[in-house]
Amino acid sequence: MGTPFTQATTETQPFWDGCAIGELRYQACGRCGHVQLIPRSTCVECFAADLQWKRASGHGRVLSHTTVHRAPTRAWQAKAPYVIALVALDEGFRLMVNVKDQAALTIGQPVRIGFCDVDGVAMPEAEVVA
Amino acid sequence: MTIDAYLTGAYDTAVGEVPGSSCMGLHAEAALGAVTDAGLALTDIDGVMCAYSLVSPHLMLGSVFCEYMGIHPAFCSATQAGGATACIMIMQAAALVVSGQCKHVLVITGDNRLTGLSRDGTVAALADVGHPQFERPFGISIPAAYALVAQRYQHEYGVTAEHLAAIAVEQRRHAGRHPKAQKREPITVADVLASKPIATPLHLLDCCLVSDGGAAVVVSSKAAAADTRGTPVAILGAGQGHTHEHIVAAPSLTDFGCKTSSARAFARAGVTTADIDVALIYDSFTITLLVELESIGFFARGEAGPAAASGALGLGGSLPCNTHGGLLSYAHSGAAGGMFHVVEAMHQLRGTADARQVSDAQLAFVHGDGGVLSAHCSLVLGRH
Fold it and tell me: In CATH, which of 2.30.110, 3.30.70, 2.40.50, 2.60.40 is domain A57-130?
């Protein structure tokens, strides 16, 4: 797929470690309870550095989606058209993912986050919930 | 209390495909043109602000420019905030002259994206602003990120593809009146809808151009403005709004920092949307302009599209918008894209917009948006 994946950082490593064992992880603040993804060293709500990793159910709804016809790089162009979705997870955080089998989506539709192997890296992807 | 700083000179180079152009060459032409327009010499400039370049990137573009020109200003910096850069630099330059740090600040933008990188190269380079772990591994591009906003906005407010197309059609009509515009041949709603799909719901003609070109302005203190030759334009208000960088982290997909930035600029100037005679608003995509028009409050939610279709954004409309043709039809060469909006506002307020002139234009609103509706800066400019 030609995914331009760059190395995980100290903050994001637990997320990718989770993906590798089929767990979708997110951060929750130990002080105010705010949940967040992208992983960080501090809470965006109260700035506390007391963040805990939790396991998400994987269930969420489509916040928005697009089918990309004109891809930004040659590697992605070979895969076009492909679907990108923003998914609002039930736990209150958001994830950008591709969609299994390039399934057509509608906003608000329930989806489940699964994982697929891309060049040896376990990547989250959305699957349509029947 | 208004800001009491003045735009005293402006210049923009040829745009579109400019053979033989270079990043610094465009900077030099724009800089000298703006200084000459102000009736100044380069040696009168004591502050320099530059933006960024995709073709000739450098960590210190301001210093590169000063070295290139052979000038040694008392203040020099470079700013990188995507499409908000031009407005942000002018806001900063105004603060420098009002505080007495500088008399005349030269603000320069320019890049040769079309001949130096090509359209494909520019699209690829810009995709790098996506988050390296949480966006780029999923094939995000700038058009795709704006498409995610468009899809959601359509869903919430009933915006149609025809509404978005109407914006592109009006921008092209404006560009047809500008002899320098990159794209001048008229287009129809059907043309937009039939153009290549880029990222649903956006088509090729919903997307901005890729261009060569440069533009610069001089910002002067009130006292120093008296030494200039042209008609100064007053910077009455300025404001910024920042909510996120990456679209995956945007707090909302329908409400953005332009609401805050414009409210701050209007409050500082002591005016409202109803007072604005001409608007120059960042239009990287048709959805960009539509969202900004509604989020800023020029139109109610869901009404900018029908308004565009009925001619409200045209030269004789209730809010003439992007009378040069904008990024969609005039030109887009990076930070200069946002500066072209400023230069056009100066033409309108100085009464030098020729066939594009909005009659008796007294107040202009200029807005820049960087990233994916991430960083916003608004200016209210007035005829002096």
Answer: 2.40.50
